[in-house]
Amino acid sequence: MPIDPDVALGAVVAKETFSWSASDVALYNLAVGAGSDPLNATALEYLDDRRPKVLSSFATVAAHFHETEPPKVSKPGIEIDLGSVVHGAQEVQVHKPIPAMGTATTTTTVVELQDKGSAAVIIEESVTVDDGGEPLWTARSSIFCKGAGGFGGERGTSDKVNYPDREPDHVIEEKTLPQQALLYRLCGDRNPLHSDPAFAEKAGFPRPILHGLGTYGIVLRTVVDELLGGDVDRVASFGAKFAGVVFPGETLRIKVWDDDSRLLITASVVERDDSPALGNVVLTKR
């Protein structure tokens, strides 16, 4: 059985200390589309040699930025083939501005297991503190695992965002690069689904797809730049559900509704009749 809930639920799957540099942050920012206008001074702040701006989504890659091996879904009570796994949702809550360089420790725990019958959803929470023990960020991630259900767990519930019944207040289009996934994989996610055409075909795709977290970071950066004046520190939290695939080179249509201290967002693919990319997207402002 791929999942043993008695072992997996509540298990600490990792406790790791890691460091990052300003160059790591700048590379991540390039991987999510920063620097497309070399004459835009605000945009170039993402690429400053010493103090680049740090998006809250950098938290999703910081701990494993220098990994060069494909990830494995091997944890206490969990053994699942990478080819049967897709990222379901991601949320990052930032407790204070993330520095451009630093050292931190992350503790990751399996906090929920959902049994969907033919599939399973594994939800992990990662709590990160700086080298002084002060909270930096808390991240929650879910992965959808085909063929891993049937272990007798609860089906679970889903939190659906209620969008206003009106046209969006803002519509932004952001084109991704043909090499976007090849850039993003340098941030520590070497899953061949995003770089190997044969692996992608075996997984049911006509060509490699963009990392879901790549789309997540691109949408966040675009909204910060267009609607928050490029001020990354105004983001208190950012969460999204991965609703569909994006192929590198496609254009994202980002719709945003103002909702007091929140921005409610969707992202779709222009070239494929607004095929969904991200849904249930909520940005909470400071």
UniProtKB/TrEMBL annotation:
Peroxisomal multifunctional enzyme type 2-like N-terminal domain residues: 18-147
Stored InterPro entries: HotDog_dom_sf (IPR029069), MaoC-like_dom (IPR002539), MFE-2_N (IPR054357)
Domain MaoC-like: start-end pairs: 161-270
Pfam families: MaoC_dehydratas (PF01575), MFE-2_hydrat-2_N (PF22622)
One MF term in the entry's GO annotations: 17-beta-hydroxysteroid dehydrogenase (NAD+) activity
GO term, biological process aspect, one: fatty acid beta-oxidation
Family: Belongs to the enoyl-CoA hydratase/isomerase family.
Protein name: MaoC dehydratase-like protein
Species name: Williamsia limnetica
